[in-house]
């Protein structure tokens, strides 16, 4: 079953705690219009509010995860239009999403598409995927986190090379560089992402949430601050029923049943 209320997304029913969201603008290789990002923000609002949704899997089509910002739409925006760009709030919405996001990438993952994939917490890709920041070919540069998130993921040299040449890298190099964690056969990328999502969804949601926050904290802070945050988060979890249940289940040699409290 899918939700038909979106023009540019296909949102599946939640399955074992995982919601699959498919970008759906086949006519433009899933290029990201403002409308698409607005719809994605709405999905994120609903997913954050829902106790049933523990993990979101984001994917595109076999040919393209997304080929970037919609260039036709972008061409119509002048400097003032850019300064007032509503897209920024939609990107921030995704950044703020507290539950895990998994990107299942096939085909082109370029420009804003690559930046969207890098908003995910876990990236896996089909062997045919290619990742790139080709904005330089348009006389511009990445503007939705590309220079910063790519740098953190793959380091300076490869980021410089990708951003300054505009040339993409293939899935294998993306894996070697640490941009993605797994390569699958293209037809298995989404099912593998859903399977990873279901494993995460079976864990205690408070622990998942705080672990995600601690890892992201480590991306943009010094080690001492990150370690302090980790210690506080670890300590907070000592007050949860899920911790009691996890430890009891271990002792009783059974599977834990977490309730998110
Ligand atoms: N915006 C709008 N339309 C796009 C698009 C984009 N980013 N990428 C592809 N399309 C459209 C094409 O115009 C084409 O439409 P028509 O059939 O109406 O002509 C359709 O999608 C299919 O594309 P192609 O015919 O070009 O397909 P291809 O297989 O020959 O090439 C491609 C694929 C190499 C990805 C090529 O489409 C391409 O280079 N796309 C642009 C990639 C790009 O520059 N992305 C960065 C955008 S800027 C950005 O992302 C900035 C930011 O976020 C801040």
UniProtKB/TrEMBL annotation:
Q: Does the record bear Nuclease in its keywords?
A: no
Which superkingdom is the protein from? Bacteria
- UniProt cross-references to CDD domains, sorted A to Z: crotonase-like
Q: Which UniProt keywords apply?
A: Lyase
Cite the GO molecular-function annotations of the record. Answer: hydro-lyase activity
Question: Which Pfam families does the record match to this protein?
Answer: ECH_1 (PF00378)
Q: Does the keyword Coiled coil apply?
A: no
Its BP terms in the Gene Ontology are: fatty acid beta-oxidation
**PANTHER family (alphabetical):** ENOYL-COA HYDRATASE, MITOCHONDRIAL (PTHR11941:SF54), ENOYL-COA HYDRATASE-RELATED (PTHR11941)
The Swiss-Prot or TrEMBL record describes its family as follows: Belongs to the enoyl-CoA hydratase/isomerase family.
User: NCBIfam families under this entry?
Assistant: PRK09674.1
Protein name from the UniProt record: 2,3-dehydroadipyl-CoA hydratase
Record the organism.
Marinomonas hwangdonensis
